[in-house]
Amino acid sequence: MAISASIKALIAGEQVAGSKLNNRLLNELLAEGLLLVVAHGSRKSYRARDVNALKRYLIDKDENYRMLDVDVLDSRASMAAETGNSKLITIRSCPGFPINSYEPIECLLCGEPFLVNPQKGSFLFVSEWEEFTIPKDVVVIGIENMENFRMIRKQKAFFENYLQTHGLSNKVLFVSRYPQSTDLRKWLSTISNHYLHFGDFDLAGINIFLSEFQQYIGNERSSYLIPDDIEYRLLKLGSRKRYDEQLHHLKQLNSNNSELQRLIELIHNKRKAYDQEGYINGTRFYDALPIISDK
């Protein structure tokens, strides 16, 4: 894969016109907070909020971006001189994805019993994901934000209430797609367990679910976690600024799932976005910590 001139320009710290960026990748980078929007009247351009963070994200997303991490003046030549094999540059050193649980789950890894039971303050990382098997009655919850992922015990009551209300198993394995790659999605496509996506309540977050997960896993086996108090949170604590920033690229976003489509319409109706971090400290609006929105 050839790295586009626009991506190279972003990595160099330059501004890039939105028309020169792939729409899908642009939406993804905006959703991850990696780009700053620079307005020029009705037109917009973008630049990296943190060049190193953007570079790491792209490299973890696709091994073909690995070349970004190498000095173009002596990249493959120096690799060949040091190792005898210039192709090593494209090898991913850390495949897999993080997993977490607040209760023990008996799984299999490489054909051997594997108890997923991280101590409080830690989580596990599965590198041999092709050989990772979980019980069929476990619900897999994918968490977009690493703060939420690390603090699942603080959200236990929230998850248990949601799962019970929606008739889902209370046996839960939490997963994260960091480092950014397709490993998690590929693994989810090989199992029969239900996948519940917990992301931000904005257009970009929903787009990530639809484009990165649901279209590969299927509508019958995947769903978006939509809390019963999200309308009130959007109204009282939501961010108008972030909604406006995403609207230009995701105005036509829609879903064939009726519940998710209602959430999309609710976000448009309130013209606000809400971060999933708001659910770390409570299961209802009145339990949430005061959050100052950037309206």
Strand adjacency order, main sheet: 7-4-10-9-11-12
Going by CATH, the architecture of the largest domain would be: 3-Layer(aba) Sandwich
Helix residue percentage: 25-40%
- Radius of gyration equals 20 Å
- CATH class identity of the largest domain: Alpha Beta
Would you mind describing this structure in some detail?
- The structure is a single chain.
- With 295 residues, the protein is of the alpha/beta class.
- It has two domains: 5-90, Arc Repressor Mutant, subunit A (Orthogonal Bundle), CATH 1.10.10; 97-287, Dna Topoisomerase Vi A Subunit, Chain: A, domain 2, CATH 3.40.1360.
- Helix content is 36%, strand content 17%.
- The protein has eleven helices and twelve strands.
- The protein has helices spanning 5-11, 23-31, 51-61, 75-83, 146-150, 156-165, 183-190, 203-217, 230-237, 240-250, 258-270, and strands spanning 16-17, 35-40, 43-48, 97-100, 105-109, 112-116, 124-126, 132-133, 139-143, 172-175, 195-198, 222-224.
- The strands form three sheets. Strands 7-4-10-9-11-12 form a six-stranded mixed β-sheet. Strands 1-3-2 form a three-stranded antiparallel β-sheet.
- Helix 2 crosses helix 8 (203-217) and helix 7 packs across helix 8.
- The longest helix has 15 residues, at 203-217.
- The chain starts with a helix and ends in a 25-residue tail after the last helix.
- The model is unreliable at 70-91 and 283-295 (pLDDT under 50).
